[in-house]
Amino acid sequence: MRSGICSKCGQPTVYSGRDIAVKASIGNTVPIDFKHSAPLDNYVCIHCGYVERYISDQDKLKRIREQWSDASKHKRKR
């Protein structure tokens, strides 16, 4: 999606709200820990409506790596 091509329908109709100042609220950030959160960059395909969200801030991603558990090491319950 960040390339401008929709990962769902393949159309070059992706728009980004990355540079729009959005008031921080639930849904626009990912909580990292009790005191910190990371803003989300939003990408929307105007052809099919598919949405993807990313964290661009490398410092926030580093903090997540330090605070969160690695999902690839979780065992799935059946």
Strand line-up in the sheet with most strands: 1-4-5
Overall pLDDT level: 86
* Structure class: alpha+beta
Annotation field: number of helices: 1
Note poorly predicted spans: none
Number of DSSP-assigned strands: 5
Order of helices and strands: EEEEEH
Helical fraction: 10-25%
Amino-to-carboxy terminus distance = 33 Å
Radius of gyration: 15 Å
Overall domain count = 1
Residues in β-strands, percent: 15-25%
Largest sheet: 3 strands, antiparallel
Note the overall shape.
globular
Descriptive notes:
The protein has one domain. 6% of the residues are buried. It has one helix and five strands. The mean pLDDT is 86. The radius of gyration is 15 Å and the shape is globular. The strands form two sheets. It has a three-stranded antiparallel beta sheet with strand order 1-4-5, with no helix packed on it. It has 78 residues and is an alpha+beta fold. The longest helix is centred in the last third of the chain and has 10 residues, at 58-67. The protein starts with 13 loop residues before the first strand and ends in an 11-residue tail after the last helix.
Which secondary structure elements does this structure contain, and how are they paired or packed?
Layout: E1 14-16, E2 29-31, E3 37-39, E4 41-45, E5 51-54, H1 58-67
Antiparallel strand pairs: 1-4, 2-3, 4-5
